[in-house]
Write a structure and sequence with these properties.
The chain is about 70% helix and about 0% strand. It is mainly alpha-helical. The longest helix is centred in the middle third of the chain and has 30 residues, at about 20-50.
Length: about 100
């Protein structure tokens, strides 16, 4: 789990938010992740009781796969680019998504 959620929460937010709101964007991403952790702490035992362990694990695997696909679909390619050029391209939404 550390390789996926932490990467999208802390690494991606530092690169994809425009410079003027980068700290706020990273903070929002971290807060949203913490809210999900709290929600999961309370709901996972209830789901496990109602669905059973096998179904719950399959559901969680599906959610993780969906999250990975959405992250891949909406990613910004930043390899070899400066943060300033990423910031400038954020002003042009049609060029952000990679086909």
């Amino acid at each position: 789990m550390n390789a996926g959620p932490n990467a999208t929460t802390f690494l991606l937010s530092g690169e994809v938010f425009p410079t003027s709101i980068r700290a706020s964007g990273a903070g929002f991403a971290a807060a949203f992740a913490k809210a999900g952790a709290v929600l999961g702490t309370f709901t996972l035992p209830l789901l496990e009781k109602s669905l059973g362990a096998s179904r719950l694990l399959l559901l969680l695997a599906g959610v993780c796969l969906l999250a990975a696909l959405l992250t891949h679909w909406f990613r910004l390619e930043t390899t070899g680019r400066s943060l300033e050029s990423v910031d400038n391209s954020a002003q042009e939404p049609s060029k952000n998504r990679i086909s």
